[in-house]
Structures are given as C-alpha cells and as structure tokens.
Design a protein that fits this description.
The structure holds 2 protein chains of 2 kinds. Chain A is mainly alpha-helical. Chain A is 73% helix and 4% strand. A 3-stranded mixed β-sheet of chain A has the order 1-2-3. The N and C termini of chain A lie close together (12 Å). The model of chain A has no long low-confidence stretch (mean pLDDT 86). In chain B, strands 1-2 form a two-stranded antiparallel ribbon. The two termini of chain B are 37 Å apart. Chain B contains 22 helices and 2 strands. Chain B is mainly α. Classes of the chains: A mainly alpha, B mainly alpha.
C-alpha cells in the first residue's frame, strides 16, 4: 500500500464552513420563515456538493488537505479529506439534505417554537460533524467533537420542558466528561508519540509502551469516544435525548453525533493505536467483548420500550456496536463491514425515525401500543418503516444485509464464530422487536378510527428516498457514492501499513 | 520621550490620579474622561512597548539615570510587556464600562473612585515593570491601598470586607518586606538581576530559604492562593461591581506575576524546584484550591459570590502551572493570566449589567427575561462561560490543554485529574445559570416597573436594554476569548516562549 498523494485544496474548508456561514444567515433572517429555510436547504446542497467534489480525488488515491494555522506549537488546526473522512462526510451531508426538507415539514406541521435557534444549531452541528470527519489530527478532532457536543445541546432541550432540561443535563454530564477524558488522552499521547496526526496503522510507531500505559490510555480514549458511540455502559444519554424533536433524533442521534462517536472509535483503533498494538495487548478482544454485550443487551432492552423513539434508540445503541465490533475484530472484511454499516444503519435508521416523526406530527402518537391499524392510513410511511426494519434485521436485499454479511465474513477471517453468532442472534432479536410494530400497523384495527391520513409530502418524500436508497445500496453497494470501494480502501490502509 | 516608554505608564497614571481630585473638584463629570483617557494612553504605550521587545531583547531602563544596582532599574522584557498589555487593556474596558454604572454603583463618589482606580493601575504597572525588589514593595503598597479603597466604596458590608482585606493584605506586604530584608542581608542588593547573579555564590543558607518562603507567602495572600484566599470572597461580593471587575482580573494576576518573577527570575528554577522545592508546595496548594473554589462556587446563590469562588479556583490554575516548573505548565500559567483576566473581567461586567438592569444578580431569580432584555450581556456571558468550562474554540480550552500537557510532562496524574475535574465542576455551575437565563420562563409575568429599577432607557432594539456603553465593553472582552483561543499559538510562540525562565 503506497501512501496516498496529498494535495492542498480549499474544498475541505468549504465543506466544513458552509453551514457555519449559513448559521449566521439563519440567525440574521430571524422571523422570516422562508428565507431561513432557504439558507438551510442551500447550505445542505452546497455542503453535499463540496464533499462530492472530493470523492473522485479520494478514489484515485489523492487526499485533499487544508491547514488553518498552528493552534498549539507543533500542532495545527488541519483538515484532511482521506477516504474514511470523505466516506463519513458523504453520509452525513447527504442525509442532511433530506433531513432539511423533512425538518421543514416537521416544524411547520407542529408549528414549533424557536425555529431560528433550531435551524442554526442544526447547521452548526453539521459543520462540526464534517469537521470531525476531516480532522487531520487528534486536537482538531477534539476541537470539532466538543463543538458538536455544545451545538447539539440546544436541540436536545428544544422543547424546554422539565423532561427536556433533565435530558439535556444528562447529555452534558456524559458528553462533557467524555470530552475531558479525550483531552487527557490526547495530551498523554502527544507526550508519548510526539505527534497527534492520524496515521493509518497507528501513530506510536516504534515507541515502546508498557502494558499499563497502553491499557489506561486506551480506556481513556474509548471513554472519550465511547459515549457518543453509546457503548454500554456509556449509552444511557441516548434514549434520554429522544425527547428532542424527531429530525434531531433522526439525523443527529442516528447519524451525525453517534456516528461521530463510532467514527472516533475507528480512528482511535485504526489511526492512533493501529492493529499491531491492538492485537499485542489484546485491546481488540476487550473492545469486542464490550461491543458484543452491548449488541445483545441493547436489543433485549429495545423489547421493553413502548415509546417508538425509545425502541429505535436502543436499536441504535445495538447497531452502533456492530460497527465497534467490526473495528475491534480488525480483519479486512470486518473493517469493510464496519464502515458499510455506518452507511447502512444511517439510511435505515433515519428512515425509521422519519416514520416515527411523520406519525407524531400527523396523529400525535408516540407509543407503539397506539399504532394499531395505522398502516392503512399511512401506507407510505409504514411501508418505508417495514423496509427499514427488514434491513436492520439484516435481510436481503437491503444494505443492512451487505454490511452484516461483511461483518460475518470478517468474524470468520478473525478466526472466531462467536461474533458471527452474536450478529445472527441480534438479527433475530431485531426482527423480534420490529415485528410487533409492523403487525400492529397493518393487521390490527384501530380502537378509534384515525382522523387524518398521510403526512405532508415534505416528510413523505425524504423517508421514501431513504428507504429506496437502502434497497438500492443493498443491491448495488458501490453505486453513485462508491461506499464499497471507499470502505475497502480504508480497510486496506489500516491493515496494509503494518503488513498483517 | 519615547525611549522612556518603560517608565511612562506608571508616571502618567500617577500624575492623572493626582490631577483628578484637583480638576474635578468643581466638575465631577471631568473625572471619567480623565481616567478613561489616561487608561487609553496606557494601552497605547503598552502596545508600543510590546513592539519594542518582540525581537526578544530585554530593555533595561535606569530610573533617573542611576546605574543599577544602585539606582532603580525598570525592565521591559516579553513577560512584563505582555502582562502590562493585558492589565491595561482589561482596565480600559472596565473603566469605559464604569461610566454607565456611576449612578448606581458608586453613587456620588466618582472622583475618589476614578482617582483610586488610576492609583491602583499605577501600582499594578509599577509592579510589572520594576526590576527592583524594594521598589516593587512600594508599588505593591500603592496598589493595595487603592484596592482597599475601591472595595470600601461599595455597599453596606463593603467596609468590613475591605478592612479584612486590609489586615490580611498588610500582613502579606509585611511578610514580603521581611523577606526582602533577609535577602538583602545575604546578598547586599535589591536589584532582581543582581540578586539572581549573587545568590548562586552564597551557597546553602537558611536565610535564603526563609526569605523565599516569606516572600511567597506574602505575595500568596495578594494572589489569593488557597488557603490564603480568605479575604477574597467577601471583597468581591460587596465591592461595587465595577471595582470587582477591576480587581478580580487584575489584582490577583499581579500577585501571580510577582510570584513568577521572584521564583523563576530571582531565585531561579532549579532552586525553587530542586534545592528548596517551594514550587511543589505552590502546586499542591493550588490543586487543592482549584477543587475547593469550584465546589464552593457550586454552592453559591449569588452571581458575584460565585464568581469570587470561581476566581479562587482559577488562580489555582495559574498557581498549578507555576508550581509545575516546566515549560508547558509555565506557558499554561502565563496564558491563563491573559485568559482569566478577560474571562473574569467580562463575567463581572455581566454581573454589573444584571444588577443595574435587572436589579439583582441572584442566580435563582434569573430567568429568560434576562435574555430578552439584555441579549448582548447574555451572549457575552455564554461565551465567557464556555471559555471557563474550557470548550474549544475559546481561550479556556487552550489553558486547559497546556496545563494538561504540563501535568503529563511532570508525570503527575493527580494534577491532570484536578484540571479535568475542575472543568466539569465549572460546567456544573455555569450551565446552572445558562439553563436559567435561556430556558426558565418567568414565574409571574412581571409588570415592567417591578422588575427593573431603571425604565425608559431603551437605546434601540439592537443594543437591547443594556445600551451601547454597557454592552460594548462586555461583548468585546468576552468575544476576544474566541480570537485569543484561535490565535493563542501566536501569543505562545511570539511572546511566552521567548521568556521561558532559564533552566526550565
């Protein structure tokens, strides 16, 4: 594996900044609904385009880089759009476009308060997310990671009810603690390695580390990124944060924020520690055990949730650990599967959240037990829901199947059938907790007839598109955005350097 | 004239301080422009001074032409030029802001207030620039006496707080003076550079140790290092908000600066770190102070008092960085002098705005009317609070970062843990207020008159109820924290790294 060619480019900067600039315009167009929504849509399209422009270069093995300036002697605030970063940025910015359309339908449908704050925070969150994706070094990563934490807070407490404020506090306690652990880890790493630049295969190089140092450092790192990745026992902020408006849950708590967490896990595993250190000190086994336990426990807990969004949240917790598990196994296919699952879970889970939001806006129902017969009045919504649910259970022809197949393959490459068994069991559990929802929606009759029908087109179109994409990428995973090639590239770069 | 720039700031401030009572005797209104003008000129000279040393030279100015060590030497090096700039800039904004507070906070006493302010600044600038241990004592007394006065002007309980500060401050100054005595006995000199050159020749001598201890304890009181902070909470709480906003960012930082000067530039790094490890004592006490101050801040119900305890904790950051006695800790400490001056300055000004416009600064009574009436104050508070917690891209994050690097360098995990835990405790007490001012809806819809003692002063929608003179200084101080954070590396590389004490 040759090192990718690096070229200087402003594109990563534009991709990060465009929504930050948009946030300013959104705030300035306070009270002018149309203008505010225009900025959001324009920024999301522009952002996706910028990321898209980076794709050909990455596929050709060229990496765009942009350095702001030094923010600490020897460490620069720098962006680097490597294949992994572009992969994540494509998903986040692409789904932001759909979520923006959906958001507009949602806030109009509910006549939400403080929409300016809502859209501005959303835009800042996306800037931070792309910043996380393109961070060239650990300090830049922390920089955007912490901005993401703060920018999400106003969205979590958006409803301003007691429950929302309590959830906001919980969210801050978890995420700020995580940030502090991450800074500690970064400071220590800088002392040990003399650099914080992410490097495929690990940054410690020939530095000799004692087992205690490595274990504690790894624990600090995983404590730092594991909160957003919702690895148990660090997950409980996520179900609580479901009090946020549904588009927030959909994009941030199923894609941007939590995926920044798992993105961080993969960065730490593949680009800070590297496969060699991970295997040498059995860190991968420890991480895999945590992930495995999370997968099963989260699925079991999902059964107990009657609130639809809470059930989805626990499902998210479980699926995030698929990705962590794939990263921990560190075999070629498991890494590909892990990355693909970032994309697959994103399209599927966002569909489900969109559906939950559509139901809430149109019929004001949040509980699964109230959904009897809703499939007849909302065929599109519940149809999309069914597609997403089938995908999460890991059945073909959805993209959930592809990623899970790779994960299973990776498990065998690693040389153990236990992860494979866990994945299969989790698939059954997924089917188990989604089946009642679909059954109630389509085969039971409502106790009181529904007064309204389908949600507004602004909400239906996005959820139909994401459901369609889930199928499309289930059949042709490499279509349009080349997820498969990118994932294979990342996997190769992580494992290739150390020549495993 | 211009080559005398090292001596100019204290002299100008002293001259105007004396002129104010004379010129403003008949016209009280003159006091403010005189003080603001003098402060502005100080900022200009401080800027000029910093350009003179950017190439790393140390400019020695001989007062009255007498050659040191006989005469008094003023030293302009990157450290003194930098701290002088910080102090004068913050002071300028606080004085600007004080104009809007004259009617409420320093009722009928603008003349003594502004005269004392300038004396206070004269003392501060003198302490910063002097290279002579005894001259430093003289300026320290000017500085402290003015501070007692500034605190005493405040509300009913202020004179008691000021008296307490006076007693403790005098004890501190006496300790320092006795320390100098010991040092003079051993070395026969009062010039800092001279003493530094002589000390290694003296050899092990208990008198030197005693001198250092006395000086550190004495200045430690002024700096309010835990557990010598007893005077601070009451003083900051009961002093007029504008005095608190002046003393909190400047007063304790001067103490920190003197400690740095004495420990590293008079006694030397290896002496305070290895031979007589007083740096360790400072570090451990500071670490304790960080936790103590943060916990006490959480327990407070009134904003100014909370900020006072938070100051105790933040002084701990500086003390901890000094005590680590390694380059990264030192960078963290010096950078935090700047950061904390701006943060605490703007936070106390926020408290002043709240007291003037909302009529109180009780945390529990704050609600979303604050945000609606005082949008800029609230925005400034938010940025400063995020910086206090240490979130990027604000300046506070980088203080935390350098101190963490220093702690790792030192290999002291407890210090690292203290810094990180304190950041979380900061989050607890600041988010409590942020929640109130953003999310808590007012319990009863109050009539306009009931909530604000001052109505009808609405200077237009954009500036909110605070008006430009109250809003701009606060906003500038607090928003600079973003710029300082983003470009901290320029400050660190351009200035602080040029003045890392020899032997560190």
């Amino acid at each position: 594996m040759t090192d990718p060619e690096i070229y200087r480019s402003l594109l990563p900067l534009y991709a990060v900044m465009v929504s930050l600039v948009a946030a300013v315009f959104i705030i300035l167009s306070d009270r002018r609904t149309l203008l505010r929504e225009f900025w959001t849509l324009a920024a999301s399209v522009a952002k996706f385009s910028f990321v898209l422009l980076l794709l050909p270069g990455v596929l050709a093995g060229k990496v765009a880089e942009f350095t702001f300036w030094e923010i600490s002697p020897g460490i620069s605030l720098a962006l680097k759009a490597d294949s992994f970063g572009v992969f994540f940025a494509l998903i986040a910015s692409g789904l932001w476009m759909l979520t923006s359309i959906y958001s507009i339908g949602y806030v109009r449908g509910l006549n939400e308060h403080k929409q300016t704050r809502y859209f501005a925070s959303f835009a800042i969150c996306l800037s931070a997310t792309i910043g996380v994706a393109f961070s060239a070094n650990l300090l830049t990563f922390i920089f955007f990671y912490e901005i993401l934490t703060i920018a999400t807070y106003p969205l979590v407490i958006h409803k301003e009810t007691q429950a929302a404020i309590a959830a906001g506090r919980k969210y801050l306690v978890y995420t700020l603690t995580a940030g502090v652990l991450l800074i500690t880890a970064a400071a220590w790493t800088y002392r040990l390695a003399g650099t914080l630049d992410f490097k495929a295969g690990g940054i410690f190089g020939d530095v000799l580390l004692s087992p205690v140092t490595v274990s504690v450092l790894f624990a600090l790192f995983i404590g730092g990124v594991g909160v957003k990745a919702a690895i148990m026992p660090l997950h409980s902020w996520l179900p609580a944060a479901m009090v946020a408006p549904t588009p927030v849950s959909a994009l941030l708590h199923a894609v941007a924020v939590v995926k920044s967490g798992v993105f961080g896990v993969v960065r730490v595993v593949g680009f800070v520690f590297g496969p060699q250190l991970m295997r040498q000190f059995d860190l991968n086994i420890i991480l895999a055990i945590f992930a495995g336990v999370t997968i099963i426990l989260a699925s079991l807990l999902a059964f107990r949730q009657d609130n639809l969004k809470h059930r989805l949240a626990y499902s998210t917790v479980g699926h995030l650990s698929y990705i962590v598990l794939g990263a921990a196994l560190l075999s070629p296919a498991s890494l590909v599967g892990s990355l693909l699952h970032i994309a697959s879970h994103a399209t599927m889970k966002i569909t489900l959240f969109f559906c939950a939001g559509a139901i809430y806006v149109t019929h004001h129902k949040e509980k699964i037990s109230e959904l009897d017969g809703i499939g007849r009045v909302m065929p599109w919504t519940m149809g999309a829901f069914t597609i997403g649910a089938i995908g999460l259970a890991g059945l073909p022809p959805l993209n959930g199947f592809i990623s899970k197949w790779q994960l299973g393959l990776g498990s065998l490459q690693y040389g153990s059938a236990v992860p494979l068994a866990l994945l299969l069991l989790s698939g059954i559990l997924n089917a188990g907790y989604f089946a009642p929802v679909i059954y109630r929606a389509f085969f039971k009759s409502p106790s009181t007839p529904f007064t309204k029908g389908e949600a507004s087109p602004a909400m239906i179109i996005p959820l139909a598109v994401t459901a369609f994409l889930s199928i499309l990428w289930g059949i042709r995973p490499d279509l349009f955005l080349h997820f498969y090639s990118l994932a294979a590239q990342v996997s190769g770069s992580i494992l290739g350097v150390t020549g495993s | 004239m211009i080559q005398n720039s090292p001596a100019l700031i204290p002299l100008i401030l002293l001259a105007i301080a004396i002129l104010i009572p004379v010129l403003a005797l008949k016209k009280e209104k003159l006091a403010f422009p005189l003080a603001a003008g003098a402060s502005f000129v100080s900022v200009i000279i401080a800027c000029y001074n910093i350009t003179r040393i950017l190439n790393g030279v140390r400019i020695s100015y001989h007062f009255g032409g007498w050659i040191p060590p006989l005469g008094i030497e003023y030293v302009l090096d990157p450290l003194s030029a930098f701290i002088a700039l910080v102090v004068n800039v913050v002071a300028f904004f606080v004085i600007w802001h004080s104009h809007g507070l004259q009617a409420t906070e320093i009722t009928g006493r603008p003349v003594p207030y502004y005269a004392l302010t300038l004396l206070f600044l004269c003392g501060a600038n003198g302490i910063i620039i002097t290279g002579d241990l005894f001259n430093l004592y003289v300026f320290l007394e000017i500085f402290s006496l003015a501070a007692y006065g500034l605190i005493g002007i405040g509300e009913k309980k202020a004179p008691v707080a000021a008296f307490r500060y006076l007693i403790m401050g005098t004890i501190g100054a006496s300790f320092y003076l006795i320390g100098i005595g010991f040092l003079y006995m051993v070395t026969g000199s009062l010039n800092m550079a001279d003493v530094k050159a002589i000390l290694p020749l003296v050899g092990p001598n208990p008198a030197v140790n005693v001198a250092l201890t006395l000086m550190v304890v004495g200045i430690g009181i002024k700096m309010a290092i835990f557990p010598l902070h007893g005077w601070l909470p009451d003083s900051y709480t009961y002093a007029p908000s504008t005095s608190a906003a002046l003393i909190a960012p400047i007063g304790t930082k001067i103490g920190a600066y003197v400690i740095i000067r004495i420990m590293f530039f008079v006694f030397g790094v290896s002496f305070v770190d290895k031979e007589f490890p007083i740096a360790d004592v400072v570090a451990w006490l500071s670490a304790a102070g960080i936790i103590y101050g943060s916990v006490m801040a959480i327990a407070q119900k009134e904003l100014k008092r909370m900020l006072a305890y938070s100051s105790v904790a933040q002084i701990g950051y500086i003390g901890l960085g000094i005590g680590m006695a390694n380059p990264l800790g030192y960078i963290g400490a010096v950078l935090h002098i700047l950061n904390h001056a701006f943060m605490k300055g703007s936070l106390f000004l926020v408290a002043a705005n709240l007291r003037k416009k909302m009529g109180h600064s009780d945390i529990e009574k704050m609600d979303s009317t604050c945000r609606k009436k005082l949008p800029w104050t609230t925005a400034a508070f938010t940025v400063a609070a995020l910086s206090m917690i240490g979130l990027p891209p604000t300046a506070g994050f980088f203080s935390k970062w350098y101190l963490a690097l220093g702690a790792v360098d030192k290999g002291n995990w407890l210090f690292l843990a203290v810094i990180m835990v304190s950041s979380l405790l900061n989050a607890v007490y600041f988010f409590r207020i942020l929640e109130n001012i953003y999310l808590k809806s007012p319990l009863v819809r109050p009539t306009e008159g009931a909530i604000s003692p001052e109505n009808g002063n609405d200077e237009g929608h954009f500036a909110g109820k605070e008006g430009y003179s109250l809003a701009i200084p606060v906003v500038v101080l607090s928003f600079s924290l973003l710029a300082i954070g983003l470009w901290n590396s320029a400050i660190v590389k351009g200035i602080i790294q040029n003045i890392i004490p020899p032997g560190m």
